[in-house]
Amino acid sequence: HEFSSNYVEESTSLQHRNTLKVITCISKALSFLHNHGVAHRDLKSENILVATEQVEGGHEITDVRLIDLGIACYLDDDDAKIECCGSRGFIAPESILRNVGDLRKVDIWSLACTILERCCPDWFEREWFPVYVNMDFKNPGQAQMMELHHAVDAAFSQLALMKSVVFSFMQKALVVNPSRRSGTINLGNDGSNMNR
Questions:
Q1: Strand partners, 145
Q2: Measured CA angle at 168 (ends 185, 89), to 5 deg
Q3: What's the pLDDT tens digit per position in 72-102?
């Protein structure tokens, strides 16, 4: 396989199938890392490579790879739990606040952001990303965190047209409060089973 970026030409009918493929493969990669006591901490579209094949309606993703473990850390690394790291647009709220309880949930948030970008690229660039660009990462205020809450609400309006499996995944992963966000992903037959 030759791998390229996560951005592929696809019809609407292929988008759902390709999105599920990305969720499934990256979930497996994260499960592997987490089961070995490691958090990725920089999951974003640029760190996902895909292999595709030409089909009617565009390109179907046939394989997915998670790359760049440059800022990965052990799950029990207390210093990592009080530093803000990752890429703008994909950083979990608790990481912004430097108060991470479970580093696995940081990766789950970043995966949700990646799927949001994949499903709604124009909206992500126009509405989601500016919330992070305007964020004061050295001293985030309550107003800035409320902007993130509002952006999540707006994201679900954008995602409402997605198939139920993707929407269900996002409801469990794109959750500002980490105590309510899933920490593991166990994809069942429909791809939607997640645990806290």
A1: none
A2: 75
A3: 999 999 999 999 999 999 999 999 999 999 9
- Rounded distance between C-alpha atoms, residue 66 and residue 30, angstroms: 9
Helix (H) or strand (E) holding 103: helix 103-119
Q: For the whole model, what pTM was predicted?
A: 0.91
Helix (H) or strand (E) holding 30: helix 12-35
pLDDT tens-digit map of 140-179: 999 999 999 999 999 999 888 777 788 889 999 999 999 9
Cross-strand pairs, 49: 5, 65
* Secondary structure percentages of the chain, helix, strand, coil, to 5: 45, 15, 40
**Catalytic (active-site) positions:** 42
Which burial class, exposed, middle or buried, applies to 104 when counting CB atoms under 10 A from its CB (0-12, 13-18, 19+)? buried
- Residue type present at position 52: T
